[in-house]
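During the first year of the project, the team set up a workflow for recording each protein of interest as an amino acid sequence followed immediately by a discrete structure-token representation. This format lets reviewers and collaborators read both layers of information side by side without switching files. As required by the reporting guidelines, we include two representative entries from the current panel. The first entry is reproduced here exactly as it appears in our internal archive.
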Amino acid sequence: MNPQTSFKGKSIHALNEAGRISIPSKFRDILKSKYGDETLVLVTMGTHIVGYPIYEWVKLEKMWDENPPKDMKVKKFLRFLYSTAEEVSVDKQGRILIPHILRESVNLKNECIITGQRNRVEIWPVDKWEAEFKDVNIAELYESVSKDFPELSI
């Protein structure tokens, strides 16, 4: 059994001409061992694509059903999110096909960065990932975060 129970780490992958990318094997292992299903729901967040294991997506839907949003901005966000949602499955070669509309939405063309974010996977165009973290001061971020999460102190 794989001791890793959450998605974490980062790797660079090439997008093929058909729009397929390889999912890191450690992420595929988590999909199999923790979720028992290799289906992801992909949505766009504007700068990147997020892939939720189907189980995690269903949990979100249940939460939204039980507590329907009242704020118009949240309703608008969910309308947008659902309009971009696409279910994809990992194929026998360990790849997923990212639909053209999602690739276009984040300008994903060649290489991408795949990161693990606890219960989801993020797929970033390399240039957007680099721009996101170009001027980040990790020490400053750590100081801010450690106030809310003192268990992170080193």
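The second entry, processed by the same pipeline in the following quarter, appears below.
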Amino acid sequence: MNRTVDVILPASKSFLPGDFVVHRALPRRELRRVGGFVFLDHFDQPNITPELFDVPPHPHVGLQTVTYLYEGEIFHTDSLDYQQKIYPGDVNWMTSGRGITHSEQVTELQPRVHGLQSWVGLPHDNRKTDPAFDHFSKDVLPKIDGDEFSMTVIAGEIDGKRSPIPTYQDLVYIDIRAAAGTSHQFGVNPSHELAVYVAEGEVRIGDRTLTRHDLGKLSTGDMFGFDALSDSKFVLIGGEPLPEPTVIYWNFITDTIGEAKQRLKDWEDGEFAPVNKYRKISSATDEAEALRMELL
């Protein structure tokens, strides 16, 4: 049975430090999560300077952050002393576990920064695992190419192509790019919760049309099909349902609200590990360029 769209939820505008605009598709009052995915931000802005995109060190607990770019570059730094630039098609996959602190910046003027950041909630038994950071080059991610479309398997498995990225639960994260007039369908796990988010273009699923910034929560079924009404970029996300208890509070996922509030107090009391290599970067002076080269 083909999946259809149960509900369409347009993403809402939000602002990161530096007045960088994002469109937040998850969480919503109407939809808290899809499979393991509890958060999805879509960003797309031109002429981004270091001043406009500088998310300073902040903590996470009980989740994984996943950054994926269509265009531009972002620089990651964390409390494990990892520093990693991410380029289009690559994946930064950070596991917070019992606690991590990280920052995200651009290091020089970017003509366009376009991409997605999502959070995957860790299951109860893994929420206090050791923090970790992994970077995956676009070259290691499986691709499925058709006449007028391509699919990249970021997480999970589609059409016998499995992502090398290890996960703590069954996930689905597929980047789909399709030319206008393209149609395609493929099998999906009927037990998975799934949704589609449109980053560019216009896509029809069943008898409903999704446009840019739309999140479509899908019905149950063992097949997924789409018709691209224009040149489009969209993602299929979800997987096995994240079991209760699951509390999403600020940047944390915990079993109880009391635990989450305690972790917030821990942050305010300076008990999270610092991001020792974080430095503010400015595009205003030659000194900033020297600092950027020192960091890299």
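For the second entry, the following points were noted during internal review. The first strand starts at residue 5 and ends at 10. The radius of gyration is 19 Å. Both points are flagged for discussion at the upcoming steering committee meeting.
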